[in-house]
Amino acid sequence: MPILSELGLDLSTAVGMFLRQTIRHKGIPFNVTLNVPNAETQEALREFQDMREPLELYKRYSNFGDALKEVVEDA
């Protein structure tokens, strides 16, 4: 494990350190949380899901150049 090696530890020593800290803290010695996206990210994910389903509602391009050309013309 590169990170442990950089710290001068092997896996056995790192696990032992974790277990000792768990005993000292009387629990896991770091916060354990779910990675919950913020409201903006949740909205973007909903928008992405909405766009995936009715694909026929969205214009398609045969290549990136055609899409870029339309964007530049609309700007």
3D architecture notes:
By secondary structure, the chain is mainly alpha-helical. It has a domain of 36 residues. The chain is 60% helix and 0% strand. The protein is built from 4 helices and no strands.
Properties at a glance:
60% helix; mainly alpha
SSE inventory with pairings:
Blueprint: H1 2-6, H2 11-25, H3 39-52, H4 64-74
Strand-and-helix sequence, N→C? HHHH
Sketch the major β-sheet.
Answer: none
Q: Tally of extended strands?
A: 0
Q: Return residue spans where pLDDT drops below 50 for at least 5 consecutive residues.
A: none
Mean pLDDT: 91
Structural class: mainly alpha
By DSSP (H or I, 4+ residues per run), the number of helices equals 4
Compose a concise summary of this entry:
The protein has helices at residues 2-6, 11-25, 39-52, 64-74. With 75 residues, the chain is an all-alpha fold.
